[in-house]
Amino acid sequence: MAKNSVLLSTRVATMADGAEPYGMIQNAALALDGETIAWTGPRSALPAGYADWPTVDYGDRLITPALIDAHTHVIFGGNRAVEFEMRLNGASYEEIARAGGGILSTVTGTREASEDALLQDALTRVDALLGEGVSCIEVKSGYGLDTDTELKMLRVARRIGEVRPVRVKTSFLGAHAVPPEFNGRADAYIRDVCIPTLRLAQEEGLVDAVDGFCEGIAFDPPQIAQVFDVAKELSLPVKLHAEQLSNLGGAAMAASYGALSADHIEYLDEAGVTAMAQAGTVGVLLPGAFYTLRETQVPPVELLRQYGVPIALATDCNPGSSPMTSLLLTMNMACTLFRLTPEEALAGVTRHAAQALGLSETGAIAEGKRADLAVWDVTHPAELSYRIGFNPLYTRIFGGL
To answer: Residues 5-26: pLDDT tens digits?
Structure first.
């Protein structure tokens, strides 16, 4: 595509805030100036200054912002197919975790794998996401639980953005689980490993945000707060796995730190929702984990709507509770399992996903935004949530190319 170009399409879903559903523009034109959207609107109103720019006509196809996966664990060693079988035979996620499975079973494989091996394995999952129109992914550490492996994972995450046309936002998730060598000594792990590793990662420029797993099988709010205090000292934003299996008040605690997001939140209560609303914290729903773990407690979607908490969606791609690499399937699951509307689902993987990552320059089609776009062989945006196991992507445009 030329450095400066005008894209034409019968319909463009800008996903910008506004009265029109999906921010829809009919018979639309987009003027791209390099990596930036210079103008958008009805083609009949295209300013004369763009009239001589090269034109690409996408006909009856739909153009949307490129998709954003705001919560992934795509870097890991091995897989947990055997645990999948165990769950089908009656074991719960918590029982597997307490028996040494779950996150800890992935720690061994990740510690043993080389940086190159982790990268090549992760790219298989990243490529699947890019093939569905994804332009930005969040990638967490958290399967090392020691200094060397946590840093190794974050370096791999940075390399993904160097070898693929995708933006990568990294999250330090050292407070993901207590490693076996610190069994029964969670406070010591936070003090002696997690926090010092966070400082090293920040010095190396490897961290964009700090995450934690606040749950009975992981860390309690006071322990997470110790990590968040250091994040605040380092001027790093925070986010949190909260209220997935129980309600420990993690989301409200995270909101008190101005968290970008609280993720999972199946057991979130009204107090947590109001705290998130006041802090501007995004609720990231992860229907892949809900589905895989066969949970029955659905997130409080109506409360989130009532208090105006933005709802984002993500794959939660990981080897145990959400081995999924399809953001389109995530959208369908959110509509079917959580009763989101297709418009809410598309906002959840564009505008609100960007907000969950602290990004203001992407997630919608508007002047001044990055030209990260997806062109679809569909006539209505609801089709993106409606189909199951079908990818209608025609092309993906990353930074205008």
So the answer is: 999 999 999 999 877 899 999 9
User: Full-prediction pTM beyond 0.85?
Assistant: yes
The whole-angstrom separation of Cα 57 and Cα 135 is 22
Tokens of 390: 């079908």
Helix intervals (H) in 139-280: 147-163, 186-189, 195-203, 221-233, 250-256, 270-279
d(CA 75, CA 322): 13
What is the DSSP track for 235-254?
A: T--BEEEESSSS--SHHHHH
Using alpha carbons, list the distances in angstroms from residue 33 to 5, 53, 84, 233, 374: 7, 10, 48, 38, 17
Find out whether 46 and 38 touch, Cβ atoms under 8 Å: no
Output DSSP code: residue 370.
Answer: B
Strand 24-33 relative to strand 36-42, pairing: antiparallel
**29 three-class SS:** strand
Cα(389)–Cα(256) distance, integer angstroms: 39
Tokens 């794959």 correspond to what residue?
315
Q: CB-hemisphere CA count at 13 Å for 219?
A: 31
In angstroms, rounded to a whole number, what is the distance separating the alpha carbons of residues 154 and 142?
9
Hey, what are 400's tokens? 């205008």
The per-residue pLDDT for range 187-212, each reduced to its tens digit, is 999 999 999 999 999 999 999 999 99
343, 386 contact by CB (below 8 A): no
* β pairing state of 261-264 and 239-242: parallel
Between CA 42 and CA 142 the distance in angstroms is: 46
Q: How high is the pLDDT of residue 288? A: 98
